[in-house]
Amino acid sequence: MAFWLDLMFGNPIGLLSMIVIFTTIGIMSYIMWLFISKSKPE
Fold it and tell me: TM segments (predicted)?
């Protein structure tokens, strides 16, 4: 576990990749929420 934490947060490239992963998850969940709320019947 300490190895993964050091790999993710120890260097800027790992931190940048974690930021990219979390941003992608956020955008995908926002698009899914938008799709579900638009396809709901009135």
Answer: 12-36
pTM of structure: 0.65
User: Structural domain boundaries of the chain?
Assistant: 1-39
27 CA to centre of own chain: 7
Q: Round to whole Å and give the CA distance between 7 and 11.
A: 7
- Tell me the pLDDT band of 23, cut-offs 50, 70 and 90: very high
- Rounded CA gap, 2 and 35, in Å? 39
Q: Please indicate whether residue 33 or residue 2 has the higher confidence score (pLDDT).
A: 33
Say how far apart CA 32 and CA 38 lie, in whole Å. Answer: 10
